[in-house]
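Task: sequence in, structure out. Protein: Polyprenyl synthetase family protein.
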Amino acid sequence: MLDLPPVLATPHDLDPAGLSAVEDLVTAEIERNGQALAAIDPSLRDVSDRLVTLVQGGKRLRAAFCLWGARAAAGPRAEVAGATAAAAALELFHLAALVHDDVMDRSERRRGGPTVHHAYADRHGAEGYGGDARTFGDGVAVLVGDLCLTWSDDLLGAAQAEAGRLRPARARRARQVWEEMRLQVIAGQYLDLLGQARPDSDSAAAHRVLTYKSAKYTVEHPLLLGAALGGADAELLDQLSRFGRGVGEAFQLRDDVLGLFGDPDLTGKSVSDDVREGKRTLLITSAEESASPDQRRVLARHLGDPDGGPEGLRAVREVVTATGALALVEERIEERSTRAHEVLGAMSIDEQTRRTLGVLSDACAWRVA
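Result:
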């Protein structure tokens, strides 16, 4: 287990009122649509109930960065039209991405409970349904993720409408950020799948996946979305973009470390998933590039083995550590975090927002869950 610095605060600690409003809006959106689904058929009520439970386990990092991006532009006490709805849209978009990602990765656990596809496959067996349980679970999860994606766009539309009543240009800019984010996340997800299918993918390919699948949409795009609604000028948008890119990369690099070395009781997901799936993270590609022939054989034996157990996990961990790949990734997290703090220090923003963004940055880089 890694010895990491403690996280000083969570997004909830830093902005309980703002995130409470976001959570209320997300829950209300799911429940409102759940009523419409149940009116079609009572069996559909379970879908919204499961989503209400699943959405409650999130860190709210994206929502927090969106709200503080708005405050960076407009001031810490300003009421930015559309910011709460945009932050809620991000949470539903993230939920859609998680549900779909879990299907592609064959993950069984998410936020301390069963993944959607796994839960519905289990129900298929328990209820004695006909057909294949895995196909049923996967199909339901695809539809559930699609619903979340649709509802997220509805909320972003509400944010645009709220902002556009007084500031049409801000609403248009926010939509541009949203559309760019959606495109890049899907592109990154495809590159992730392609990397797993092509064993010759290298660290450069791993970095592209890291950037577009996760890093930009975790921090940079939420910041820019909130800042656009808050009326940020070009200079602040550029600074927030550079800050967000560094923090987002540190976040995803930490996620990769936790995916291999983390504590499942804290992360809410298995540490064996990345190994069984043969994830081409920067940890793995860096290890392969520095590995001896014997070490490469160990990685080739265990990465992508769907039946891999504790022995395979332990062997991969040993190679990643011995080749210096773990140390390299930790150095990159430190470097990205330091650079982000330097950019943050140069911004012309109020000190409360600067301090809060700094704490959120550290929470991304040094988290244990």
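The mean pLDDT is 91.
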